[in-house]
Write a structure and sequence with these properties.
Alpha-Beta Plaits; 14 strands; four-stranded antiparallel sheet; 2 domains; globular
């Protein structure tokens, strides 16, 4: 991160990577001094001869960079980075709060599920207790269970996580 850029001018941007290049692109961005975030989730993988815990990207082919809006060239010239995401003809920026919420979700022991289904919005809620306290989202009917939906704007995906109804407040 350049010392001449104040933190007030920096925004989070989702970046699309080449398939299975998320970790390499993340490492290359960090090596360039670009602030990046790659959400990883631990999963138990089964092979024919063994099981092993591995860290996989939560969002396939995505990572996030925090840059000034005019500092896209160094990101695009990074090995493994394919392109920025666009929304209404402009590069999509994400609010800091959404990145903070994503980090909070990943520090919890809850099992997360990412879906690209077009889920219909429902009742807006805020979690009042537990490891996800303070996160806002929407309740949806999915697989016959009440679950919290954290919709990531401008990315075309949603994160679903089970939360007890007693831990939410209606907004």
């Amino acid at each position: 991160m350049s010392s001449t850029v104040s933190n007030g001018n920096l925004k989070w941007y989702p970046v699309y990577t080449h398939p299975r290049a998320e970790k390499k692109a993340y490492d290359a961005l960090i090596d360039k001094g670009i602030e990046a975030y790659l959400p990883l989730q631990r999963r138990l993988k089964q092979w024919s001869d063994r099981k092993k815990w591995v860290e996989e990207p939560l969002l396939k082919s995505y990572l996030f960079v925090r840059i000034a809006d005019n500092n896209q060239a160094p990101v695009l010239m990074t090995r493994g980075v394919a392109r920025f995401l666009y929304f209404s003809g402009k590069i999509a920026a994400m609010p800091d709060r959404q990145i903070d919420d994503l980090k909070l979700l990943l520090t919890s022991s809850l099992e997360l599920e990412v879906t690209e289904e077009d889920l219909q919005p429902g009742e807006k809620i805020k979690i009042k207790a537990g490891p996800l306290k303070g996160i806002c989202g929407e309740i949806i009917a999915y697989r016959s269970q009440k679950q919290l939906l954290l919709r990531l704007e401008n990315m075309g995906c949603s994160i679903i996580v089970n939360v007890a109804a007693s831990l939410i407040n209606r907004l």
